[in-house]
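# nightly structure sweep
# worker-07 picked up a monomer target from the shared queue
# config: single-sequence mode, recycle default, output format = structure tokens
# input follows
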Amino acid sequence: MTRTPLTGTTTTGAVPAEDLSDDDLPSLAEIDSPQWFRHADTMAGIGFLTVARRLPGLIRQALGMAWQASPRDTIATVTLSMLGGVFTAFGLLATTGALTALFEAGPTPDRVRAALPSLLLVGAAAVMRTLLQSGAGWAQSRLGPQVSRITESRLYGLTSQVDLVCFDDPEFHDSLQRARLRGMAMADTVVDTAIDAVTGVVGIAAAAGVLGVLHPVLLPLLLLAVVPDAWAAIRAARMRYATDLLLVPARRRKWIISDLLADKDTAAEVRTFTMRGFLLRMHDRVARGEQKVMLDLARRQTVARIVGEALSGIGQGVVYVALGVLLAVGAVPLAVAGTAVLAIRSGQSSLANFMFATNRLYEEGLYFTDYLDFVAQAQARIPTHRSGEAPAGFRHISVEDVVFSYPGSDKPALRGMSVRIDQGEVVALVGENGSGKTTLAKILAGLYEPDAGRVMWDETDVSGVDPHRLRGRIAVIAQDHTRWPLTARHNITMGMEKGGDTVVRAAEVAGADQVIAELPYGYRTLLDRRFKDGHELSGGQWQRIAIARGFYRDAPLLICDEPTAALDARAEHALFERIRQHADGRTVLLITHRLASVRYADRIYVLDHGEVAEHGTHQELMALGGLYADLYGLQAQAYRTA
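# output follows
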């Protein structure tokens, strides 16, 4: 007896999913890493020197984005952060004067009075530093929403402008997904962390400057104090990245299983095939493995923190010993040593902030680079501007020797295809799957550009016409129509308000008026159950809405691509009757597999592997006895009785 790994079925019968053992659980680790974890392997393999080399470029890119969002807030953030560092240094130097006065010989009241001016300077410096840092924080918090807005606007402005064929290019699609899933979201984070890194550098520079002014020998002591903290920070980051990388397959599996358990599309089959126990066991098995790794990480991070703190303590001990030696030999006075301790602690704090910002900036910068790469790629694929005016109508449309290939395909979808459509005709495209019907329809709709050949509206080559204006002369009823989360009215008008009862007439022609009459709020009903008071439609009801959408546009060319795929026989018959009536004086291009619906077309083109195999009226093609007659006979046979 054998068992298939995914279904759990055997040669002797089905095994309920509830009874499967852990050995039957399928492996999902072979699926590619999710886009949100794409650069984990890169992060796990780098060292601090690599980060340091890339850091200036990342900061420059981030500040450039911030400048585009708001030059004023960018200048305010950077300037106020630097001034905050200046007043930090000033406060530390003023502390020396205060300590000098307090440590002098004499009565305490006299020493306090002598230190008072310096103490006032220290207080003023602290107040100014706080105000400047608050101002910098306010300006920085303003940058985030502005950066997010321009980032989103740029991406969606490009995605809605590139050629439609870009979405059939796997490389372009992957690049878009990387830019959307994490690259775009990282823009404001990269800006924030870049500013945090700059602020950390300013703080370290302020501490180093103070130590250099107090005594040149004190400057190396800053390194002794901060190097252990730097090592501990880098060590902790590497451990986290290595663990995250180790958990990629497990988290990928858990992510997939979670979707299966909680997604609307799978909810019915989870219950129908009693998959609940099977999926929960899969999820628990992966979750327990992840938990074990995370507990081990917690243990190792605790050890690393203890070691880091011990090294930091040793470093600080060396600092204090060195300060004691300097005091003993009279190289520095006691007040300077006290100020040095404060400066070193300030430098340690700034370094910790800098290290955190640096690690985060490098990681998020990798994803932000995905966004920048996509923007450059999309800008290169925006169609060249065309200024030609779209014809108001046509006497005939001719497709002349058109060739078209999809990106990455080694054979063309259309091979020298020629078709003619006269004004007022109903022209049908028929053929088996993959014959090129929808591809030709998209070329006629101005959605694809042919690789060779041309499409003419009378004497006008549409390759020189503004595609946006051309599409305004064409209405499309698509089989794979979009179910927009909008009201019923907006699902028909699609942002084009003609006023009056035009939308009602379009709904009546499509038979969608009956659907809308049953909705609780009529045309104002929101057609998405995910929202409050939203309503869901069946597939056939949605198709009637999509048909009304095409009729509402009232264009000289109506393209119907499988408009009856989700309709029952009665609704299909009624629709084709309406299309024939609606076509009075208009031109209809009809694509369908149901050949009984095209019998009354003025002309039928039979496509086969991207070429026109036959064309003529229904009677002519039946008399020819070719491909059309074979397909028609196969469908007709299904309705014959024995």
